[in-house]
């Protein structure tokens, strides 16, 4: 009985710690400005894709624009009731996909074919990781 209780206590403490770390990370992301998030994301892409300075500047500008649009959509959503959100769910999804297509087309113009191929692989990996996560309520 004692070993079971010890294992259960260890499991609960690890789970609690992991959840608090995720909460802190999410909170830090929301407190960063759009420009800071775009700079960090463009630097991550620079490291992953070996971007030159010109490409990095263009990517940062593109990400700033994309994040600004996302923020506006999020703020628009916050002011609506659940009935209104349900009514225009298809419209929001279409707008989100249009923005994603636009971002992808712009990235294709900025990156070399090899870099773009690696970028698409990274996006697929991220999407598959995010698919398993529950949506925030």
TrEMBL record:
Keywords: Signal. Residues 1-18 form the signal peptide. Gene3D superfamilies: 1.20.120.1490. Residues 71-92 are annotated as: Disordered. Residues 72-92 have a biased composition (Basic and acidic residues). It comes from the Bacteria. This is Uncharacterized protein.
């Amino acid at each position: 009985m004692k070993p079971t209780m010890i294992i259960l206590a260890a499991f609960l403490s690890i789970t609690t710690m992991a959840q608090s770390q995720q909460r802190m990370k999410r909170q830090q992301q929301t407190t960063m400005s759009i420009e800071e998030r775009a700079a960090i994301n463009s630097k991550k892409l620079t490291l992953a894709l070996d971007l030159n300075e010109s490409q990095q500047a263009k990517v940062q500008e593109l990400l700033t624009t994309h994040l600004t649009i996302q923020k506006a959509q999020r703020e628009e959503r916050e002011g609506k009731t659940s009935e209104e959100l349900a009514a225009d769910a298809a419209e929001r999804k279409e707008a989100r996909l249009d923005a994603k297509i636009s971002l992808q087309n712009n990235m294709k113009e900025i990156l070399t074919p090899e870099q773009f191929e690696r970028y698409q692989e990274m996006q697929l990996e991220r999407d598959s990781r995010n698919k398993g996560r529950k949506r925030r309520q």
